[in-house]
Design a protein that fits this description.
Helix content of chain B: over 70%
Shape of chain A: globular
Structural class of chain B: mainly alpha
Distance between the termini of chain B: 21 Å
Strand order of the largest sheet of chain B: 1-2
CATH topology of the largest domain in chain A: Arp2/3 complex 21 kDa subunit ARPC3
Order of helices and strands of chain A: HHHHHHHHHH
Largest sheet of chain A: none
Number of strands of chain B: 2
Oligomer: heterodimer
Radius of gyration of chain A: 18 Å
Strand content of chain B: under 5%
Chain lengths: 228, 292
Amino acid sequence: MLMIKNERAAFAVRYAVPFVLVPAAAVAGTLLLDEDKHLLVSLFAAALSLLLFAAGFDKRRIGTRRMVICAVMTALAFAGRFIPFLNPITAMAIITGIYMGCEAGFMVGALSALLSNFYFGQGPWTVFQMLAWGLIGFIAGLLSAPLKKSRIALLTYGVLCGALYSFIMDIWTVLWYNRGFSLSLYGAAIASAIPYTASYIVSNVLFLLLLFKPFGVKLERVKTKYGI
Amino acid sequence: MKTLEGANPVALLLFFVYVTGLAMFIPFPFLIAASLICGMGYYYLTPGDKKGSFTAFAWLLFLALTIANPIISHKGETVLLFINGRPITLESFYFGLNSSAMILSALYWFKTLTLVMSSDKLIYLTSLLSKNLSLIISMTVRFVPLFSRQRRSIKQTQLAMGRYNDDSLTADIRSNIRVFSILITWALEGGITSADSMEARGFSLGRRSCFRREKMGLFDISLVMIMSTLFGVCVYSRLSGGLSYSFYPRAGIAPLGISGAAGVVAYTLLAALPMILKAEVSLKWRLLRSGI
């Protein structure tokens, strides 16, 4: 692997490749190839960015404590998914992203999707769920300062994530069923997913309201007490 | 020989990638049928799991998806009937049937994947990619049962202390939040303690290595090569046009060319591979027992 000396440049490359270059390639592939290749391109792109992220993850030294806390948060999100009707993974990924940084947010989102799907049904959608939840945590990490400051911004972000997550997963449903994108099927998919979308939004808002402050206090406390 | 589940996890993962990937990207009716039959066979032969509820769920979804397509899509020539002035066509029904059979077969394959891909196999596979990642996964897998046990004991303690011990919904929610909050503090502190004891035992010193029980043996390598060859035949058949089929505007029976036939046979062999290996192993077992 290429070694890049400059810390900032290395950071930019590590994230630009999985999250900018690969999606760009996916969009280009979608525009250039014909309809029945869309599914292949999207699946390939999502898997590639996850693999690249994972490979980049090993190159960096992350502290042991941070790693264990990642595992704790993932396990909590995973266990929380057994709550009926509600889904705390988004909220947990957001909280981890805000307090522990982008990378940890991505890990918690993506890993809890992967692991909990062993109970809730593994499928080709796992790749998209991992990417969607991971990115939600990652972006929360990038926006951590404004989200920490204002509760309205945080809840807005939660609502947006719930809706966007559902809409993005519906694109995948349509692609899988129909092989090409079809607007009427997409509309039908969104309409039939309204209860799910509502449950995502409600659980994001609910869990962020309930958990953000206690988790914040606890994570900040652990951070100052042990210096992570 | 071993069964597929006993082989190296790389071979196992590759099998599922090949078999579901081909079924998802080649919507050829015969191939989908082979995928569905072999997927069901492998699922029902794999021990573990309550099979009944999954079967009911999968087939209900199959029915719903099959009906959905002709209602939404009105392409095709053979009109069966009109609903609200919109035609319901036979071709659209066939297309929906094919798509939902594909989804059903993928559900079966992935359900089997969750049965056979145990956590040690998952950790082995991720350790090939990143050792830190596989460590986090192994810790998470260990934490989940630990936390649920701890949550139960916290809850019992809280109830014994007489907190929120009534049946109203708000009290229930508040008590659950309280239990969860205690659990978080406990989990974070415990996590830091285990991180520190890992450090004290020299965790972050030197190069990380990873214990791997599974080795890539001759059997695994030949398995991977056989599967890859069959996969290659299918892809070649698809690229040369042997496995293309169009439902619109009219779904008819088209003769299967040599390339198409080769593709279907190769796919069927690939999908039936775990069952063939299982049969071979159980036959050998019977022979060995009969010799006693």
